[in-house]
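User: Modeling request: complex.
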Amino acid sequence: MSPVTVVVDALLIVGVVVELVCCVGIVVMRTAYDKLHYTGPASIVGPLAFALAIVLREALSQAGIKALLVALLLIVASPVLTHATARAIYIRERDHVEDPHS
Amino acid sequence: MNVWLIAAGALLIGLIPCGIVIVRRPVLEALIALELASVLNTLVLLLLAEGFHRGPFFDLALVLALLSLAGGLVFARLLERWI
Amino acid sequence: MPVAFDDGVVPAARRRVRARLAFGLGLWVALWGVWLLLVDTLVPIELVAGAVAAAIAATVAEAVREGGYVRFSPRLRWLGFVPGLVIGVLRDCGVLTVALWREIRRPGSQRGLLIRLPFAYGDQGGRDSARRALVNMGVTLTPNTYVLDLDPEAGVMVVHQLVPGDLDSIVPKRRTAPTRRTVT
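Assistant: Request completed. Predicted assembly structure:
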């Protein structure tokens, strides 16, 4: 087993563990505000780990570049979506549409 | 079968808790679970692309990442007041 | 009799045109590069298609910018915050993992807080708009905290933290008055 294969496998394990832990967090945490925190690592650490694994395997070929682009897109989109969702929860709570603490 | 396909399969298991939240919890928590499911699906496509060595799957993942952003923003905006 | 021309206005207009051209051309080249990266080939038809697509996109982007719909003028030195952001992301992943473990062991023990922080909203110019957008993005990027609202009238930023932490790291000290933590 070459060092590159070991690192690739480690990155895949890290990515999968992070994603699955975030899925558990979405179920376990009680309120919408608390659940929303667990989309962050899933959109940042997971994609970065997988993209780096692909780049290590494929170098900066088309596959590697596209994987990095996907990761970059998810990382940039994550705070945008989180803020928009948080704002929706906040406005609905403020306007008494729904109680996020139920 | 290779590590990429195994990783993709493991990520698919993560869709089950997302589905549970979408079905059973209020609409805003469902939106959060939907956003996480979109990320999972994008990553599954990425891993399948590498596992099967199919270039077009990378384009699928890229398009899904873009459309998930747009769709999530539309849902969040509509859920502020109108749904 | 020689006529004196007051061309104080013309150089400014020329500078504006040059700036717009530079922005448009720079964007065109960058987008063309992205196209070529994605198609991974230099066949003539792709070069032409990429050039045309990039020209359309750059034209639309410049028109939107010129119309004032998007005001975004960040400072280069704000890149200095990136290393701290990376550390914050990694640290907060650990914080969230511990919080999840505690919540599993004792359900209901972890509840986040809504916090209002003093925040100088600024005006609608490019610099302040960029500052607000990047502060919002930087704070929300760290998983333990995200921004819900920036209130221009009250001059506050409303954030939610899952595990109460250091608030002064959310907004740089030198830009704010001493922060006051209020739980709602």
